[in-house]
Amino acid sequence: MLEVALAVDDGNNIDAKVDTEISTCLGQKPPKSFFLFAGAGSGKTRSLVQALRFIQKSHSRRLRLHGQRVGVITYTNKACGEITHRIGFDPLVEVSTIHSFVWTLIQGFDEDIKAWLKVELESEIADLKDKQAKGRGGKANIDREKSIEAKTRRLATLPDIPKFTYNPNGDNRGRDSLNHSEVVKIASAFLSEKPTMQRLLITRFPMLLIDESQDTNKMLMEAFLSVQEKYSAEFQLGLFGDTMQRIYADGKVDLGHNLPADWATPTKKMNHRCPKRVITLINNLRADVDNQEQIPRTDAEEGIVRFFILRADIADKMTAEKLIAEKMATIANDATWNKPEEVKTLILEHHMAAKRMGFYEMYEPLYRDDTLRIGLLDGTLSGLKFFVNRVLPLVEAKKGNDSFIVASIVRKHSPLLSKTTLKAAGDKQSMQIQKAREAVDALWSLWKENKTPRFIDILRNVTATGLFEIPESLQPIAVRSDEEQKLAEAEIARKMAANDREDETILDNWDQFLLTSFEQAKPYVNYVTGKASFDTHQGVKGLQFPRVMVIIDDSAARGFLFSYDKLFGVKERTRNDFDNEKLGKETGIARTRRLFYVTCSRSEESLAIVAYSDYPQRVSENVINRGWFAESEVEIISV
Ligand SMILES: Nc1ncnc2c1ncn2[C@@H]1O[C@H](COP(=O)(O)OP(=O)(O)OP(=O)(O)O)[C@@H](O)[C@H]1O
Q1: What is the 184 CA–ligand 1 centroid distance (Å)?
Q2: Rounded distance from Cα 278 to ligand 1 centre (Å)
Q3: Which residue, by CA, sits nearest to atom 22 of ligand 1?
Q4: What is the largest CA-CA distance in the chain?
Q5: Could you say which residues bind ATP here (predicted)?
Q6: Contact 378, 363 (CB under 8 A)
Q7: How far apart are CA 185 and CA 36, in angstroms?
Q8: Which one of 231, 264, 526, 527 has the largest count of C-beta atoms within 10 Å of its C-beta?
């Protein structure tokens, strides 16, 4: 709080009292839980860190004496790292993602987990059988049958599992492993029903702060709230988040409503991130939802917002967007708009990114499999790491004629030059070095005459030379004979041509991926490491960028969860929408509005919205009539 007291009063500290209020809640006896109401860019993370610093100063002795810690739940591993760093890696605070937090609670309760799983599996099987009896045959029936078989098998093996395992960042495919949604469900159930689990939580973590609480799983959030209500004298919850930024379907819809009367509800007013024009826009977007209106910093720039509309069927969207970026450079008087890497382009989903960046073919077969999806998107699949962390850097170094890097990659990663191999080679070490050199040449030969190999060509080449270790997931494919590989390729081609997904196995997915071009490896790696200028609307939660281009294109997005056409009033609401609205239930329009709020509020300087629609004129009229954009800010572009 010293920071606050010493801060110069330039009119930008109007929310400092909120941090004071939170500290009071944290210092109070009995503890007072709180829900921080704060919109985009208001410094929620800053307040969270400030709260932790207060706890470090005022409570660390007492907590340590009792062997207790402060729990902090946040959304991504990256956010965990950031918070841990900002509080000086203090072991007093356990910062974790939802999944690792709940796993530390339920881990070891194997008999209870077993009993829970038994009931769950039995009920799922009964449910599937019921549907099966009413089903009309076809693929759905076959899928259900398979699902019933798998669940029945799992049920039968349950008694033999002595200990359950779980990795918050992994695939969890073993017989004894739990999957991601199971650990959350189990923890929610145990916290709601089992006094032992409730006691465990409150004695280990008498204070629990939850960041991005609007997206915390509904069942779990309700369980935490019920524990807090039951043990309000000993257990304190602090919720940080913004209900307008709820973008995942499993968050608690009415979070922040009907809180117990003894909770504090501090509210932040100032947006420290966005320029004035963007703040007016997001206030307008929010006005129909709640009354939270933000004010800009006293030193905020005016900022630039533009809304461009194009026909949905234009052929070359990326060229059109490039032209728009050039226009923005002039309008915003900011030449940096001409540098693609300096503009954050937000698209609705990963599929669109994969298509636009040119890695869709390798992406699609892997995305299709539930167990591969997460690893594909965060770049942790070992089968892919082989290509992007070993082969790609080597090939790039070869292309750049950088023999120093080539040598260092091979020395570091090739089993041909590992310490054990070299030791075993004795005085024949130079032969081993020659072998490694030949292996690199063999690999490089796949690129001769400007060709680009497929992933499978690389895999087979490296398997033959032993240049790099082959990951386990690809081994069954790597060890095939030429004849077997030919047969497998023919079978995959037949399945793809017939769009035959029946009995599709993970190996089928890998096979299909391997038959596509390695050219895609670089754009893929740029995307997953965040180096590409593209990101998804959802992926930029919590982030900010000087120049933001939001792409709105319902036609290129799959699924029905979002509809910008409905938000902009050019597509009629369905009967379902009206019914849901009446019942106070979630609708696609509400969901899209929140997503639009999140994307627009990422902008620190200027914002271009590029909307593709079949009805450009109507979109234009509607966004102007609603007062979201001035006439001078909207432009229909015909290319
Ligand atoms: N009191 C403050 N004074 C100056 N700058 C601040 C203050 N609070 C936050 N900021 C700055 O404002 C920006 C937004 O802060 P932060 O990302 O923490 O907001 P947030 O509420 O988490 O936003 P969102 O929910 O939109 O992701 C950051 O650059 C942060 O450093």
Answers
A1: 30
A2: 15
A3: 44
A4: 83
A5: 38-45
A6: no
A7: 26
A8: 527
